Amino acid sequence: MDLLQIKDISKSYEENRVLKNVSLSIKEGEIHGLVGENGAGKSTLMNILFGMPVIHSTGGYEGEMLIDGKPYKPTTPEDAMAAGIGMVHQEFMLIPGFTITENIKLNREKTLPTFLSKIFGNRLEKLDTEAMAKDAREALKKLDMDIDEYVPVAGLPVGHMQFIEIAREIDKSKLRLLILDEPTAVLTESEADKFLEVIKKLSQMGIAILFISHRLDEIKQITDSITILRDGEVVANVKTDEIDVKEIARLMVGRKVELSKKEDEDRGIKDENILEIKDLRVNMPGEEVKGLSLTVKKGEILGIGGLAGQGKLGIANGIMGLYETSGSIVKDGKELHLNNPREALKSSIAFLSEDRRGVGLLLDDSIEFNIAFSSLEIQDNFLKQVGPLKLIDKKKVREHANRMIEELDIRCTGPKQRARALSGGNQQKVCIARALSLNPDLLLVSEPTRGIDIGAKKLVLDTLVKLNRERGVTVIITSSELGELRQVSDRIAIIYDGKVAGILPPDASDEEFGLLMAGEDLKKVVN
Amino acid sequence: MKDFINRIGLPRFIIIIFLIFLMALAIYLNIPLSDVITDILVRFGMNAILVLAMVPGIQAGIGMNFNLPLGIICGLIGALISIEFKLSGFTGLFVSILIALPLAAIGGYLYGKMLNSVKGQEMTVGNYVGYSIVSFMCIFWLLAPFKSPELIWAYGGNGLRVTVSLESSTSHVLNNFLAFKIGKVTVPTGLLLFFAIFAFLVWIYSQSNKGLSMIVAGSNAKFALSNGIDVDKQRIKGTVFSTVLAAIGIIVYSQSFGFLQLYNAPLYSAMPAAAAILIGGASLKRATIVHVLIGTILFQSLLVVALPVINVIAEGTMSEVIRVIVSNGIILYALTREGGSAA
Fold first, then answer.
1. Which CATH class is domain A273-526?
2. Could you report the per-residue pLDDT of A444-497, keeping only the tens digit for each?
3. A394 to chain B: nearest residue by CA?
4. Using CA atoms, how far apart are residues A49 and A126, in angstroms rounded to an integer?
5. What domains, with CATH codes, occur in chain B?
């Protein structure tokens, strides 16, 4: 019988459906791979399985789960642990100042009775350090870890921390299913190899493993079977020997819902570079760019894709000078001053941040002020001279805002409404209006459709295309959704590990995209 | 009714009701209303600029400037020097301000630089800097080389008095300027006009491109940065303006009060000013002249009306106790609001 069965699980966050009838099952001792793009629903599925509170505070889920054929309905992580499910998170959950033993036995300490505990109850029992150390040693031994259990965790290499997290899980006597969320992402190659060895050993001990990873070769190498998720749906549920890496990549990316196929047109993009980036390094935490080179042609729409954390978001932020940047950026033949947002804006570059509510908007100010401010600040527009002072010209601001509201079809009660009250799509349009007020010739757009419902997505994308066609604005659009990049872009650069992994036309095959995103060398795989 | 309460905010609604109740009680107790109204006008005028000093700080993103004592000390030094030179009347007043201005600007600049390295904790740090500076100045007041008999202890020796009378110098110059009477109520025209000038300056600045940059930097630093604004510079600017206004504020306050209060007195200036602007409806991110006007009128009225009423029906010291409870209670309430939104 299967250890864990998941049947028809569905989950939506408000209107946004993130999982649709997902089913999978895992046998005892099986290593089961789970792959999918960012946003495919992997984390949500894990959260449901592990009983994370976020699921229940947002209305729970539909469908059922069975463990050993018995219904399993976790509402807290404790329920999951009681059922024998352990999880190793992407971020380490260890206390740095505690020793390895203390971390492994945290909250499950062994204790000895004392004089005080006999009077005041077992909360005053003392720790049985010897027994705890013995347990810890055993758990570490199962992982082939040769390390003293009394060493504090702080200062250990990341690889070791990963093992200690796992040791903690296997020390739980009832552990039957271990969930590993991108466990090798932080490991070096040799550490990862050793890690995979250990995983195999665990599975031989009868522990089932649910293995989430972006590294497709790893998945192929270690798992017994694979479930591929795309847009919250299971697109394949196969034995690992029956599928190859290329096929996994293709299924993972897939064709998204065709919104509107781009009409065949002669784009007539001249062979003139508007932007030449050489050896760009951007120190943006979590999205580091490491020596990237890229040229952008005048009048094109360039898509930038790639998985989260590979550095694609760092590029636009670096060009704008919002994070520490080095390298060289040449705009229209002129060297751009780095680390200076004002210079970038003055060079006719406008930016729509991926953090729309944090960076892109003044949430408590009116729509009209949001639209006008950049232009007011950078180009001294919307001002009237009164004596020695330049005061804001509210009439001009109002007129301009009304024009923009009409042109971009921003749904609001009027130009005085606060930006906070708008829906995501309309907020994004306010951001676009603000960028347009600068009359840029290069527009950097990051994650334009994040957190926007599907209808509004199309409107936002159409607006960007319209700007490109009618005003001749060159657009660099960075997005985690490959589907939308393929829909609007002329070329798509895929970023892996802070560099361009390759540039593909939008009609390149799914597997080419999938392989580039997973950091595989296209030629190597094809050969 | 509910709409009305929502529009003016619950705290203001409660305070207004309380104020009306006190007014009624005052009339019932035969406390002359004309005196009360005169007092409200005077106390409004003398405190309003100190409250106004909170505005640039909030706009620039440093929150309540609890380090008002810094500016106040600069103002006091200005006033002391003008007395030392035996200046009086308007000359004394303007010379005091002229001397205080550069001192406050330098002090504000240095303090602003410091605040840029403790982002997110400006209000806590401000409090402690205030305490430190006041204590440090206690030494200064003792050692300062002033010679005028008005300033030093009557029995000679070193050090300045705790309170310096302005009787022979600038006392009431603004209060009496163009003052007129309506019935038994005296209107301190000069005092109110003086405040009006500064309120207008702050307002016009907040409409200018420079001022808008500062306000945007204060309300969303990331947004400001992505629009090419040097956020640190704007914060320093706000701190300088706030400190300068505090310096002017204390000079105006003192001429109306009739005394300069040295030593520990500046410590007790920031809390009432913060309370007043919060009552007026400001938040830690947003403050306007309207908040200053409403807040100062409500807060000062409350004190002016409450004191005689409570003094009649209860012990004499109750009035001070009530004042402290009200001002600190309001600050506490405003700080517990999420992000200080509309207190």
1. alpha beta
2. 999 888 777 666 777 888 888 888 888 888 999 998 888 888 888 989 999 988
3. B207
4. 35
5. 12-21+32-340 (1.10.3470)
